[in-house]
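Hi Y.,

Following your request, here is the sequence exactly as I used it, all 424 residues.
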Amino acid sequence: MKFTNKLFFQTVIFSFCYGVIFYILQFFFARTGMFSIIPNAMNIHNWDVGYYESIKRMGYDGNSHNTGFFILFPLIWKISHLGVWGICALNTIFFSLGFAVLMRTLGEKNKLFWLLCLTLPSVYFAFIPYTESLFFLFSSLLFYSVRKDKFRVFWVSLLLISLVRATAIFLLPALLAMELLSNPRNEFLKSSGRFIYKSALPTFIGLGIFILIQYYETGIWFAYFKTQAEHWGHVFTWTGLPFTNIEGAMKRYHWLSALAIFLNFFAFTYLIRYFWGWIKDKKSFEPNLVFSLGYLTMLLLSLIFMNPKYGNHTTNIMGANRYTFISPFFFFFLHFLFQQKFSLKQIAYVFIFLNAFLALTFGAYRSLNIFIEVGLMPCLLLLSFMFYAQNTLKNSWLLFAIMAFDFFAQMHFFQQFITPLYVD
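Below is the corresponding structure, written out as tokens. Let me know if you'd prefer a different format.
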């Protein structure tokens, strides 16, 4: 069956209704006493929401830390004249549109896969006043424009996404990898030239516009980068192991960030294999898959080399699960894995690799308590997914178990967000 316009709108409605049901269940569980806090406009206005709201009201202030955030989301919030609940609804619409564009690009009509994506614990960030939804929408349009060869859509989407979040700069190495690995090796110069005018130009134009806006309002050149370095400690530093986290995360959600870091590293191994195949055998690969692997690789490098240490020798991986799991790049990689048929031998190798990775980077085997806090859930979730993919009919119950666990984790993390306890 072809992915029709009717199916596109069904996907939009499906994902939007998921967001609505998410909030309905939050109210229901709070009323029944299962959850302790009822969502409202005040407790949703936590963490980074305050920074975006201050930019919306007063613009950038050189004496505050709101210069550490990009412009497009607060600008849309200002133009829309919406309150907290209104911008939550608008973000849910943005995300739903992006989700439908991505599923259309993938040609994916399987509603179980839709649910697998939507129930990922970090997806609730798409339903609050954060930048995730806009980033998801424009990134999905990039995938669509690559698949359909829509140059104008690609160019405009890349320009706009450069005004949404700093991680847009990660797109450039990923797009360069996409141009190179999706074309024959003997077209290296042609691919590099195409990358400059097609990808680098709109990205730097968008970034330049943002820098000029901040300078006009604060009188400070490169205010964003200075704030990120001075206030949040995002400067280059050599990795310090084992990875740590902040605000009680070690007991609450460090396992989710550990899974995110591992899956980013897993994507990196695929990218290396493809690059070697391109060098050795002159193979070319599917552009959007290389794009996804490249972005997840750049995200991994940023997390382990640009995240703060906060006064000790260990790297703090805050942001790992948020920036990984609520992005179309991970959804695309997940779709690739969803289509694989893993053998028992491959599952065993991944299990050994995962545990070695967790032991070396997270110290997961220093004690039983640390393994339960960090290593247990990544092992169970990843193995369950691979066993499901091995035989999708026989092991379908594993997929439902994964989605059920993810959904309740998602609900619980949102409760932490509005408590407020730092979630990522």
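The chain has a mean pLDDT of 93.

Thanks again,
Q.
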